[in-house]
Amino acid sequence: MKTNCMSCRYYRIEDEQQGRCRVEAKRTDGDSPEKAVVRHDHSCGEWVDCGQQYFIRIGWLKARKTTQAYQKT
Ligand code: SF4
Questions:
Q1: N or C: which end of the chain has fewer CB within 10 A?
Q2: Which of 58, 36, 46, 37 is nearest to 4 (CA)?
Q3: Residues 6+ apart with CB under 8 A from 62
């Protein structure tokens, strides 16, 4: 498993491209919430394994893509 945001405990996925990092949000103390936005493939030294949550995120993304493809037809 890659040690990027997608597999990090501090990540909250928002869409297909990006999510929010709780560590970054704490660093900026809520002053710059846009700085807490990071891409799935981003990584940093604060990474902590999120365990099974990684597979839940992958499943959520797949379901979202399927739903969007279905809605376009
Ligand atoms: S920026 Fe670092 S701490 Fe934040 S979610 Fe990504 S790997 Fe985790």
A1: C
A2: 46
A3: none
The whole-model pTM stands at 0.86
Specify the amino acid at residue 48: V
36 ligand 1 Cβ < 6 A:
no
Per-residue pLDDT tens digits for 24-41: 888 877 677 777 899 999
Atom of ligand 1 nearest to the CA of 19: 5
For residue 8 the two structure tokens come to 């990090």
Q: Decide whether any atom of ligand 1 lies within 6 Å of the 6 Cβ.
A: no
- Residue type at 54 in one-letter notation: Y
In total, the chain counts a number of residues equal to: 73
Q: How many angstroms does the Cα of residue 69 sit away from the middle of ligand 1?
A: 30
